[in-house]
């Protein structure tokens, strides 16, 4: 089902109460939707208001796609389009794709619909653990995990623990070593690798705990066993436990708006 929402306007082209109700209706629409297509006017590019709407959709857990419409009249040069896409990637942590289209001529409309359906599927999909662990090895290969006070972060194991939206758990040796920039690096790689552009994904970094049998060992032996980290199925942290684990350390100065300006495109090198 497709829901068309009335546009939200910042300037007072419409009265405040109409604005209030269109915002309310947009909120209702994104609460029900799997995918939000944010249609922008190519003449203006993606405006602050468009970012506000994308943010509304993403906060509601929608996968998001941005469309620059009226391409028949206002197409940009390749450079300008690349700049526009870069801006979107920088502003929106979910890194949605930006497609160009014309509702008037029908240009790219099929592509927009196909992309929206694919985004809905990806939001519901499940990625096999074997693929995820191959991915994790590639991430570590591409960028060495950070060391905090001389102790290096080790990412041991990754598995998908939920869908709609996709949620992943990565077992780590020490959560205090998961710094924000590296967490975003992992998130961006996950998006790029599994086509999660514009899809809200959650990554929990869970500290591996010693098993009871290990606790009863001598202190020296105990430390060694924990550090060696043999990967077994029972190492996966159950879902209930994940709810209690908070995300990587939050910096209120940066994370006051969770989805906007949180990503750092320079991390993609
Ligand atoms: N040239 C061109 N004009 C378009 C295109 N799509 C829409 N328009 C025109 O843009 C104007 C606004 O179109 P609407 O579809 O009403 O826009 P909307 O975003 O739904 O507006 P609200 O529902 O009022 O928020 C109309 O005059 C359309 O003919 C397009 O792809 N190319
Ligand atoms: Mg309309």
Automatic annotation (TrEMBL):
Record-annotated GTPase Der C-terminal KH-domain-like domain positions: 126-205
Single GO MF descriptor: GTPase activity
Alphabetical list of NCBIfam families matching this protein: small_GTP
Name of this protein: Unannotated protein
Keyword Transcription (UniProt): no
Keyword Nucleus: no
Domain Tr-type G span(s) in chain numbering: 27-117
InterPro entries noted in UniProt: KH_dom-like, KH_dom-like_a/b, P-loop_NTPase, Small_GTP-bd, T_Tr_GTP-bd_dom
Stored Pfam families: GTP_EFTU, KH_dom-like
SUPFAM superfamilies: P-loop containing nucleoside triphosphate hydrolases
Originating species: freshwater metagenome
Alphabetical UniProt keywords: Nucleotide-binding
């Amino acid at each position: 089902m497709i829901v068309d929402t009335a546009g939200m306007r910042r300037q007072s082209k419409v009265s405040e109460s109409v604005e209030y109700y269109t915002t309310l209706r947009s909120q209702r629409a994104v609460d029900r939707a799997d995918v939000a297509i944010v249609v922008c006017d190519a003449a203006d590019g993606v405006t602050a208001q468009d970012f506000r709407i994308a943010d509304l959709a993403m906060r509601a857990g929608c996968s998001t796609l941005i469309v620059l419409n009226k391409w028949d009249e206002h197409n940009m040069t390749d450079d300008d389009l690349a700049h526009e896409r870069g801006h979107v990637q920088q502003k929106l942590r979910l890194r949605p794709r930006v497609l160009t289209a014309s509702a008037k001529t029908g240009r790219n409309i099929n592509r927009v619909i196909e992309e929206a359906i694919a985004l809905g599927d990806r939001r519901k999909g499940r990625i096999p653990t074997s693929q995820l662990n191959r991915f994790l090895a590639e991430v570590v290969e591409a960028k060495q995990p950070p060391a905090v006070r001389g102790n290096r972060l080790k990412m041991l194991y990754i598995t998908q623990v939920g869908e709609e939206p996709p949620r992943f758990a990565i077992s780590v040796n020490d959560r205090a070593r998961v710094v924000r920039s590296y967490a975003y690096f992992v998130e961006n790689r996950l998006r790029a690798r599994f086509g999660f552009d514009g899809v809200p994904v959650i990554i929990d970094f869970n500290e591996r705990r010693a098993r009871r049998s290990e606790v009863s060992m001598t202190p020296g032996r105990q430390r060694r066993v924990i550090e060696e980290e043999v990967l077994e199925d029972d190492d996966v942290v159950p879902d209930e436990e994940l709810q209690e684990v908070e995300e990587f350390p939050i910096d209120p100065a940066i994370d006051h708006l969770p989805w906007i300006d949180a990503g750092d495109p320079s991390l993609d090198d």
